Amino acid sequence: MSLSLILKILAAILACGSLVAGVVFFTNNTKEQGETTTIENTETITESIPTFSKVGVTVSADNIQYYPCDVKDSQGNALDYDFSVIERNGKYGLIDFNGEEVLPVTYGPIREMSARVAGNQLYIGENIYLPDYNVLKDGQLEQPAYYPEGDPREDVYWYNGQWVLLGLMGVYDRTNTADSYVSSMYENYEKAEYIKYYNYYSSATLWNTSAVIPVREILETTENMMPYGNSVYSDKWGLLDIKNNKMVSGFVYDEIDFEHGFSNGLLAAKKDGKWGYINEQGEVVIDFIYDECSALEGCEGKQVKAYPARNGYILVCVDNKYGFVDLKGNTVIEPIYDDASQVNKDGKFWLCQNGEWELYKFD
């Protein structure tokens, strides 16, 4: 075939307005609607789906879960764990990603607990307020347990068209500039490094980011009313752009994953009975199509009902089966497994089928 003929064929393909190369396909559809013209752009991008393979480690256990750690030690080093929590016959221990026990399976509950602003860390013990040990990066135990405290500042709510602080004495009216105590409270809050999400045991976000925060709306209150017993709140949550004092969503979310907050830029939220994921601008990135997952023991022993995004992947549940999606919501492992763990920083994770846990790795 001559060069000139090849060039003519390429020109004809480009003139069609579609480029087909196994990678990207664009189509423009134009519709006339009276005096208005709308252009619908559909874009399909074929992305390579990550492959995964067996590592060659199989373990019998009731449960294996990997909990990334956000806490930093006194030298500022992240305590990202190189092991998972293993449960067998009601006892707990630690197992590394070679299948070797780091800590014998002889201990009481090992829980992931929120360290408030500091992050999340593993603790051992029946008493959630006074655990027996902290779990350090190398799997060693620290005793007595250090349980990081948070910042008990007032909570942020939406009230009368603006965000306000709510404390034990009720709503603190930010327009009351004559009250030096209230003025100083708002001033100190806005100068703080962190914005609390909701109550003393919650996650937080940095003021110097653009992240939205979930809030409820105060529907009814009175001055100096004890708020937690008497004020009336919205049943659902909305997303607040606190820096610009505006709501970026309605109050439509049934639940929010306060235990982990934003992770990998996404926040788990529940709407109409299903879980999905929102980005830091309040946009829905992954639709609300996933079921509640197995219990994750969080702060105060509460269930965290959706897994956070970790190391580029999200563990999701559909009809009591588990699989993975990426940060865009693309399915990378179909939800066909009885259980699974989150993905560690090296791309390793556990999958369970018929009571056997097997170690895998994204290639």
Count of distinct strands: 31
The number of helices is 3
* Radius of gyration from CA coordinates: 25 Å
* Low-confidence spans: 1-45, 225-229
What is the terminal separation in angstroms? Answer: 41 Å
Percent range of helical residues: under 10%
Average pLDDT, to the nearest integer?
A: 76
Q: Output the structural class.
A: mainly beta
Fraction of residues in β-strands = 35-45%
Major sheet description? 4 strands, antiparallel
CA-based shape: globular
Strands of the widest sheet, in order across it, are 3-31-30-29
Word description of this protein:
The chain has 363 residues and is mostly beta strands. It has a domain at 3-45. It has helices at residues 3-15, 180-191, 227-230, and strands at 24-33, 36-45, 52-60, 63-65, 83-88, 91-96, 101-107, 110-114, 120-124, 133-135, 141-142, 155-159, 162-167, 170-172, 194-196, 204-206, 213-215, 218-220, 232-233, 238-241, 246-247, 255-256, 266-271, 274-279, 284-290, 313-318, 321-326, 331-337, 339-340, 348-353, 356-362. A four-stranded antiparallel sheet has the order 3-31-30-29, with no helix packed on it. Strands 4-5-6-7 form a four-stranded antiparallel sheet, with no helix packed on it. It has a four-stranded antiparallel sheet with strand order 8-9-10-11, with no helix packed on it. The model is unreliable at 1-45 and 225-229 (pLDDT under 50).
Summarize the structure.
By secondary structure, the chain is mainly beta.
Key attributes of the depicted protein:
363 residues; mainly beta; four-stranded antiparallel β-sheet; 3 helices; 31 strands; globular; disordered N terminus
